[in-house]
Write a structure and sequence with these properties.
Number of domains: 2
Helix content: 10-25%
CATH superfamily of the largest domain: PK beta-barrel domain-like
Strand order of the largest sheet: 6-5-10-9-13-12-11-15-16
Number of strands: 16
Amino acid sequence: MLTHFNDDGRARMVDVGGKEATLREAVACGSVYVNAETFGLIARGEIKKGDVLAVAQVAGIMAAKRTPEIIPMCHPIAITGIDISFSPDKERGAIDITASVRCKGETGVEMEALTAVSAAALTIYDMCKAAQKDIEISNIRLLKKTGGKSDFGGISMHSEPHVAAVCISDKKGVIKTSVPEIFVKIDHGVVDDAHAGRGHRQVSLLAGESVDKLRGKMPALQAGDFAENILTQGICLYALPVGTKLRVGGAVLKVTQIGKECHNQGCAIKKQTGDCVMPREGIFAIVLQEGAIKPGDRIEIITAAVTGRQDHCG
């Protein structure tokens, strides 16, 4: 139900005075796409206007604080913290932006997080437009919100993010088999798995929640039936932006792709399951830190900040 209308059908600011003040957080993300030349100028600090990401970070923080001046029906909120981080990806020509905003109050900070990402992205455009006019800003969205009447996205409110199963196969295009443990290697992927090798799709992950959507018509679904290496629980994988770093058990993975095109409509996976959820909601990652992964291992979302420090947003 839309709440920003009064009895006369005119816009109003909702009265939140009767709500309980709680700790609230919202995380939003988005991406800026540039060509190889512009990406190099940013990375080398050769944009004439200055340090692009440093300026964009300040712009995002300032914009979050002034959201009520931009969005008419937003409440002025006493923000307690704002973190903005960037994950440049040379292969995609992308600068992925994540903004986390926190407060203790009667209403949430989703708009502040989204405004922060938008302002940071626009600032990158402004800083670089002399070098490239066709910069693309894309996929600005809310990743998660917590602390209000209902939580959304990112981390499940019912379960701490963890590994539900790990799987391998000795051939491509077939379902995988659950194993007690896997080991992932840099520039390789999962040891003893047919999909291992260099490239940007070294490890595949699928959320157990995605599989659960199909259990009504396919109750016998098992871990590995969609050819995933890692089946997770308690985290919305496909809502993570490309560039997100995940600590999974003893390893660190970096998300490189969300979903994929299914080139073979008659593949063994689809024949086995009747539907292939992996192209829609599976994700792929490369290995940044080698290590063992087993069922029950905790999954932690990591964001690489401009300063080189690591911020935990999950």
